[in-house]
Amino acid sequence: MKKVIILLLLSPVVLLVLFFGTLAIAYSPVYVYRLVSMNVADVYDYQHFDNRVIQGAEDVFQFQKQIDEDYVEGLFHDRVVRSGMETFDEWAEKSQTTALIFIRRDTILYEKYFNDFYRESYFHSQSMAKSFISFLIGAAIDDGFIGGINDPMTRYIPELKERDPDFEKITIRHLLEMRSGLKYNTSLLPGINIHAPWHDEAVGYYHPNVRKILLEKLEVESEPGKLFEYNNYNTSYLGLIIERATNKTVSAYLEEKLWGKIMEYDALFSIDSQKSGFEYMPSRLIARAIDYARFGRLYLHHGNWNGRQIVSEDWVVESTRENKNIPRNSYPDWFGEGCKRTYYNFQWWGHANCDSTFQFAASGNLGQNIYVIPSQEVIIVHCGNSLEHYGDWDLWQIAEKITSPSEP
Question: Can you list the positions of beta strands (E) in 222-335?
Answer without folding.
Answer: 267-270, 285-287, 304-305, 308-309
